Amino acid sequence: MGLVCSAPKVYKPAAEVDLGPDSDEHYISPNVKAPRVAGLPVKMFAWVLETPVLGSVVLYVLKKDNLVNKLVSDADIPEPPLFTPTHTWQDIPEQNVSLAKPGWSPAERVEEAVGCLPGLADPSSPGFRRWTIRDFTKAYTSGEITPVMVARRFLAAVEECSGPDLNMALFISYDPEDILRQAEESTLRYQQGAPLSAMDGVLVAVKDEIDCLPYQTTGGTSWLGKMRPCVADAACVAQLRACGAVLAGKTNMHELGAGTSGINPHHGSTRNPYHTARVSGGSSSGSAAAVCAGLCPVALGADGGGSVRMPAALCGVVGFKPTAGRLSNSGLLPLNWTVGVPGILAATVEDALVAYAAMVDQSGPAHSQPQLNLPLLTSTHSMPNIRLARYGKWFDDSSEDIRGCCDKALQILRAHYGWETVDVTVPEVEEMRLAHYVTMGSECSASLATKYLDKLDKSEIGWDVRIALSAYGSFSSRAYLNAQRIRNRQMYFHNKIFETADAIVTPMTGVTAYALQDDALRTGELDYINAAAISRYSIAGNFLGLPAITVTVGYDRGGLPVGLQFIGRPWAEATLLHLAYAMQEACSKSCRKPMVSFDLLSKKE
């Protein structure tokens, strides 16, 4: 560690970079050397960073050490900045899809999506399976189970999860009276033979970064709900409510989304249902864990740097982030406005599709709306000529267990479907990660500073987040502009790769869920090595606004889930859902039941 910087990087024009498999582009693995700290050392570090002059010096050294200055802030980059990851509509044909009409209501889109699904899986087939939206609909329609019965079981399960034996910390707030009221209304509709949609009576949990009445939106803090009143449902929540979904409360999250572990000193640290001594991932920690434990087949998250997909992978569920602009951001906390979007955590790919169909934003003029294709999952097996781009050095920068599971998954896709994996180079991956960090941090700081943070006693903020906010506020305008130049380069690289490939395939995380240690529960922790490994593959989806999805493909030697990720062309969600469904079905027989799991459709009272 020192004050003398090596020379800033001079980038050659993006068009001169070789994207082929034999490219001489140098792959940089994240340069993270800091040891994990928690408890008193975290407090001391926060105090240092908040000390005038000394804090600035320490932050300068840290940014030099992790290459932010060399690769981003002080770099010489020829491209102009690209400030938003917006994509014009491109009429790229997708295979085996149903075209949704622009004027359809959320319930009509749900009906169309359900028509795209294959038959329900045989409950006696090998492997663990979670109950899906259609399982709940079937039970409700038969009258054997009602939404009220399920809601009561849900409330009992949440109470059990919140007790001292499990201490799962899944929810920040839930209102039993409101949940039962919604369930009673849904039960009456089924009794009258008039459910609003296949989602009527289905429980959906909502990350506490998304507005949902009657709750305040805390963003995982102890203070934001008091300073920013929630006056209406977020757009995506309103669409689900219009389909009859039972909104089941606000799930826990890493404070302000400023971490990947799900450790929250204010509302408790969300535990992984596969192993309660492990982290759930973040920042949509409670949503991922709630779906994993069987409390709901769908939950909403927000994804600004993998915050839906990373916990989904660690908890063994589906995590789906659509193209930027496909879902409305209205009612989502504006923590990082050019990278953050709503996302979906689901028990299965089919559930992700149904929820996605309900939530798609078609509020604008018909002529400006991207075409909405819904994948005909009944015919996924007949899709030929799929090409998956794989960057070997990046793909292999993961644990041995993850690498082995993901390699095996690609072999299965080739054997079952004949889909081809092609070798490419995705240049400047670490540069992109750092540029995204500068962007996300700068936007979070700008969004919160004047309106909230400047009026707040720092003691109300968690210690680890105080450190993050100190770093966020230290980035210069030059660093932000250079980050947007790197965004422009990466947009070019990815668009070129998509000219010859249908998707880019990577592991979802570089490590599986790591230990949740007691010394972090009250202060949070600084574990930059694990944080960098967890977020290694998530950045392109947010920084470039690309659709991405993760699905479970196996387990490590400790029985913890491993996720595989597909990153797609802009607006090609249907293709991604096809790929994820094929992968899910190929691995279904090996699916394992989590340690903490609830059966809300049991016929036993």
Describe this structure in a few short sentences.
The protein is of the alpha+beta class. The protein has helices at 40-49, 54-65, 68-73, 106-114, 133-142, 147-162, 176-191, 224-227, 235-242, 285-292, 309-315, 349-359, 392-395, 400-417, 429-448, 463-472, 477-498, 528-534, 539-543, 573-587; strands at residues 37-38, 97-100, 171-173, 203-207, 246-251, 271-272, 275-279, 298-303, 318-321, 341-346, 372-375, 387-390, 420-423, 503-507, 525-526, 548-555, 561-568. 36% of the residues lie in helices and 13% in strands.
What this model shows, in words?
The protein is an alpha+beta fold. Helix content is 36%, strand content 13%. Helix 6 (147-162) packs antiparallel against helix 7 and helix 15 (429-448) packs across helix 17. A hairpin with a 2-residue loop joins strand 6 (271-272) and strand 7 (275-279). It is globular, with a radius of gyration of 23 Å. The protein has helices at 40-49, 54-65, 68-73, 106-114, 133-142, 147-162, 176-191, 224-227, 235-242, 285-292, 309-315, 349-359, 392-395, 400-417, 429-448, 463-472, 477-498, 528-534, 539-543, 573-587, and strands spanning 37-38, 97-100, 171-173, 203-207, 246-251, 271-272, 275-279, 298-303, 318-321, 341-346, 372-375, 387-390, 420-423, 503-507, 525-526, 548-555, 561-568. GO terms for molecular function: catalytic activity. It comes from Triticum urartu. This is Amidase domain-containing protein.
